[in-house]
């Protein structure tokens, strides 16, 4: 395997682990603190709503990696 492929695999695995941790921690917090379905949005999420959305972050990283790989193979 080339160095670029290993680096991309490591980055993708780090994003997957971060997304899993973020999702499970939010679910645990929700289950332990409040039984309401519609609660107030935390201040951290109000300040940075896109950074705390792991699905959106995964899509952005995927498309950036896709463009980077495409440019790499086109200008190789």
Automatic annotation (TrEMBL):
Keywords assigned by UniProt, alphabetized: Membrane, Transmembrane, Transmembrane helix
Q: From which domain of life does this come?
A: Bacteria
Keyword set includes Membrane: yes
Transmembrane portions of the chain: 6-27, 56-75
The identity of this protein, by name, is Short-chain dehydrogenase
């Amino acid at each position: 395997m080339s160095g670029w492929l290993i680096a991309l695999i490591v980055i993708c695995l780090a994003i997957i682990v971060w997304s899993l941790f973020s999702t499970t921690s939010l679910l645990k917090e929700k289950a332990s603190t409040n039984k309401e379905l519609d609660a107030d949005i935390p201040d951290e999420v109000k300040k940075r709503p896109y950074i705390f959305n792991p699905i959106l972050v995964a899509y952005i990283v995927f498309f950036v990696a896709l463009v980077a790989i495409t440019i790499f193979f086109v200008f190789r």
